[in-house]
Amino acid sequence: MDIYHKFAPFLFGVIFLAGPSLSAQALLFKGSSPKVSQERFNYDQTEVVEEISDFWSTRKMAVGLTTAGTYGLMGGVVGFYFSPQWSVDLGFGGGSHFQSFGFRVKKMLLKSSPLNPYVGFGFHRWQRNGTRPFNSDDLSPQFLSRRLLSDEDKRLGRVDEKLVHGQLGLQYTFTNGEWAGWGLFVEALMLLSVESFKTVPTASLGFNYLF
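Request: output the structure for the sequence above.
Response:
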């Protein structure tokens, strides 16, 4: 007890003098701690997105070429953009021994990227105007004779197929630079015959120019 009473005033003085210094250091340490930013990076508000959005807002038409798919072997397409995401394509093409024509409604799924997935649906007609017989094995694409034409069609040399179709595609469009407006696309399609209800999966590849 004597030792305690002897050193108690000394210990109290040390604590009294050291207390404010420790508190100041604690406040200084607390004040110097880095603040964690609560803001999240928003890609939709960057200059790149604004540039792409401006591009789609000013381009109202497109012309292009497509291979295979809904046009047979090859077709030419004209597209009308009613909004940055919605458009209607009209086209004409064909394959060996037949012609094709039709339309499609397409919706782009993104507005903020040059690489854009899309979905579409439409109607096409594949037709042969001539009446001369032909070897159905010479038709191209070959699934026309193998899957869609009836035996009577082959005997008469007739091609008259009404097809509804849906597709899932992916398009890359250059939105700046000297290639601005040019686009490449690839798509997977499902063709359905209106008369026989037979289905044919196929694919298409092509390019277009937006202006």
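Strands lie at 61-68, 74-81, 86-95, 98-108, 115-127, 160-173, 182-193, 199-210.
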